[in-house]
Amino acid sequence: MKITDTGAPDPDATGSGVDTAAATPGATAAAVAGAGGLVAGRSASLWGDAWHDLRRRWIFWGSVTILALVTLMSAFPGLFTSRGKNEKCDPNFSKLGPGGDHLFGTDVAGCDYYAHVIHGARPTLVIGVLVTLFALLIAVVFGMLSGYYGGWVDTLIARVTDVFFGLPFVLGATVILISFPSHGVGAMTLVLVLLGWTTMVRIMRAQVIAVRDADYVTAARLLGASDLRIMRRHVLPNAIAPVIVVATLNVGHVIAGEATLDFLGVGLQYPEVSWGLQLNQAQSFFVDHPHLLVFPAVFLSATVLSFLMLGDAVRDALDPKLR
Prior knowledge:
Blueprint: E1 2-3, E2 9-10, H1 25-34, H2 46-54, H3 58-75, H4 113-119, H5 121-149, H6 151-165, H7 169-177, H8 185-196, H9 198-211, H10 215-222, H11 227-239, H12 241-264, H13 275-282, H14 291-318
Antiparallel strand pairs: 1-2
Helix pairs in contact: 2-14, 3-5, 3-14, 5-6, 5-8, 5-9, 5-12, 6-9, 7-8, 9-11, 9-12, 10-11, 12-13, 12-14, 13-14
């Protein structure tokens, strides 16, 4: 349709006054697609675009494959070994090298090291995932309240966050863990949650502040929506993406932290089996029996690296500026 200098449509340009673009569905679909709107009944979204981008990344699929394998090892160790942890151990065959009936050799107690590595995946992965989920829940609740209401609520939560943020990880974890003689999975989870929620709270708070005064939030408030509904339906979906990325990265950091505490002897204790505990037991025999350190270190490093690469891939996919 032709537009005259006065801004009115010129019916003579088409002979009928009907917009030719409206008569060509293909052109309309192309125009809408270029504008980021509906195409063939589908709407563009942040997560949809991110998934479309992730599917083309080999780093994403490589990380997912490794993590899926570790998850299977954790949930169904019987798929990989018929031996239970600390089962069929013979001190006469202590610290044997890889080969024969023992694919990864034996440990200091004469137990099959391959079975120990397989069973070591469960506590390591469970602690990493549980700590991240609890820390994410804390971050969503306190970060939302702090960023949305501001004022004294923001000040109080910020000061409490600063106190926990200032606690040294190794020293703080050691002091707390000595109060739990068993040093089990529950104690480790509690300690790592207490020391690992602060970063996500700060990120969540910053994201909420960025969206709380957006037009759609103001409109919902003027229409009489309650604060809880506004936070749940409008603020949270638009503020959670960066926190999800940090949570994905945090699983790798938590696993590394758990292994560090196990290595220092203040984490899980025998008869528990974990990769960090295996590294602790192997440090005195590394020169003569390197397999005791190599196998759990490889599995631990691959798992941590996979979570970090997955987090990086998700971050790049969610940030249009990095595409």
